[in-house]
Amino acid sequence: MKARPRKHVLASGWVAVLRLVHVPEGDKVNAIHSAGTSGRLEGAVLEWRSAAMRILDRYVYREVFSHTMLGLVVFTFVFFVPQLVRLMELVVRHSTGASNVSLLFLCSLPAILTFTLPMAALVGTLIGLGRLSADSEIVAMNAAGIGLRRLLVPIGLLALGAGLLTLLNTVWLGPVALRTLHVLEHRLSASQASFAVQPRVFDERFPHLVLYVQDVDATATRWRGVFLAESDAAAGLRLTLAEDAIVVAERGQGKLELHLGNGSTHEYDARDPSHYDLTAFGASDESVALSDSSKPKEIQLTDAELSMRQLLTIRGKGWRDAQVELHRRLAFPVACLVFALLGVPVGVRPRRGGRAAGFVVTLLLISGYYLIFVTGVHMAQQGTISPAAGIWAANLFTLVAALVLLRRIERVRGKDALVRWIDALISRFRKPQPAPSPARAQNGPVPVRRLGVRLAGRAMGFPLLIDLYVLRTFLSFFVLVLVGFIVLFDAFTLFDLLEDISRHNIPFFTVINYFRFLSPMMVYQLVPLAALVAMLVTLGVMAKNNEITALKASGISVYRLAVPLLVSSAVLAIGLFLLDDTFLPYANQRQDALRNQIKGRPAQTYFQPAHQWIFGENEKVYNYELFDSDQNLFGGLSVFELDPDSFQMLRRVFASRAQWVPSLNTWVLESGWVRDFKGGRVVRYIPFRVSSLEELSEPPTYFKREVRQSYQMNWRQLGQYIRDLRQAGFDTARLSVQWQKKFAFPLIAPIIVFLGIPFAFLVGTRGAVGGLALAVGIGIAYWATAALFEAMGGVGQLPPLLAGWAPDAIFGFVGLYFFLKMPT
Fold first, then answer.
1. Contact assessment for residue 159 and residue 336, using Cβ atoms and an 8 Å cutoff
2. 3-state DSSP: the chain helix, strand, coil percent, rounded to 5?
3. Which own/partner contact pairs does 591-597 have at CB distance under 8 Å and 24+ positions apart?
4. DSSP-derived 3-state class of residue 23
5. Is the model's pTM score more than 0.90?
6. What is the pLDDT of residues 140-181, one digit of tens each?
């Protein structure tokens, strides 16, 4: 076979290149014609080659950059969701300005971006190149004589930019943001403290004082029923009671000025029980300090908050941990480069699955990288290997794998063992297509099923063939997204606990058990988001493949098409409620206990016998130095009986010891006294050695309050817990909101799917990427709204019913409006 002249090879090859990068046809013809007539074809081709490569680089860069930004937003949002409630509570409770709110949220992002920037660089490379490979543009580039290593130029520039941003974040912005965040949180907690005072709650946040307020008005400037006690009041110091108070916050001086009205002051010396000072007043002023100025706070910075210079100067005991942190700050920026280097040979491989395959490959590579990274960090902190070797091991392994694959990058049709294994794993997510029968093969092409005719006769039936098709697609994407999010959360959580695991020598199986019991909570939190993403991707892919148009032409309404999605999301909601009602509380108790073990905290009991203040029945306040729940024994017990109208003290009881006697069904008091008050003076004083009082009717179980989180109980247990705490004078606003959310949160799965269905058709030809981007937007809107209402309900600014159900109601009505307006 006669070889083609070199000039014809160059011309035909670069016409393909120019066609690939969308250069206008007239310019290509003119360029080749002028080059041929001038007799300098090769020079013209080289000139056009330079211009074409620049255009091609920009084209590849834009393709990869768009997917990188989408991955960055998705990963950052997923990691940021757990912090929304805490940040919203700070904002709502302290009613700070817009600048502080913005600074609060911005300072929370750098720690997350340290992880998500390398992830985004990898996912952008894999999905972007995977799209080019799926559309045969990689093959066209190879046929045009362009080496695939050329892709390293635009992708390398993108990875270099991501690496520089990560370096800026880890070296300077991250530590500064963490320090600023802590200072800002402290400042918000110290300012406007009157808004943080909740009614009918014993507030022990103030130095040397315990504050109880019976009622607070909406402006938080007027209180009714004020009870002020010195922190050592049980030993017989100073009590102040007032019918009302006007509150003025002195922010500059860090204190609250209380203008008390119609009250009394009680002073008692434990060394002389017979001596008691009582002073009544019509008006009085009292200052409440927000912080203890006599004890200056020493701010202990963590390694993550230290600057690079401070880390370099650490010697002695903390040297190894400082070196681990130092190398970590340098390793993550380099991870952007090695991820991009690995993503090029993996991404150009032709594979089925499109962008979903790129997402799966990203999860596998990220999991492998962080597994090596976490193992290396653990060994470095244990002293088994040097900090540099432990931190850089993951980057080194990834670099070696990338270089091995880059050697074979030009053989696009070839498959390395790693790539074959990844493709085999991806193929499990896709159902194989059945081969046509021999009879049909002989008769020609397989006829298309007339779905419209078959469905017309039973349009109201369920499930139909199309329902099974939609459900299969939806569930496959749902499982993929849910598993992916859980893997990312596990990696992020494991890295956060790595230092504690190493410091406290936690066994490997303890860590495994922790994540085993943590997974149900992750599933519970992430199912609505995964369902939204899966629904949007499912309908987006169907719209891109013109399947929606075909179904409409067959007479199938979009409303009917949404039925399997709504049914499956409703089933998910029922599953979430049953999970929260059965296994989830137990799993949360176990994972909390294991987390305390990993953190090195003492083994916690679910009881809090050291709590010194509790509101009893019939307007009584109990205070004690200790309570032995096993022997039902009080030490240093004081009981204050109050007038519900004037909030003045009617009787005060003190006993150095009090024990419950079951046979008498009463408390037996030892070595104490009783004082009765009336009209601002003591009317009776009775000392005793042993005594019992009928009004002390609360049994020992009343004081054995279980200290449990809302997520450690189902709705029945939480309801009873709220009733017990409310009777004892505890603030139950936050717990009441959580009780409402026990029912409201599972319903968000069908509601958010219902809302997303009309928007799914707006993504058009964007397919899975458009659906994912839209899911992020809707998810941000819902979780920010839910966090805001939960925070407002937790601080008492909204009724618990409204705070728990408002997000469902808002998004449900919005979804109903757009669903009915949707063209069918």
1. yes
2. 60, 15, 25
3. 591/514, 591/517, 591/518, 591/521, 592/709, 592/712, 594/510, 594/513, 594/514, 594/517, 595/497, 595/514, 597/504, 597/506, 597/510
4. coil
5. no
6. 877 777 777 788 889 999 999 999 999 999 999 989 888 888
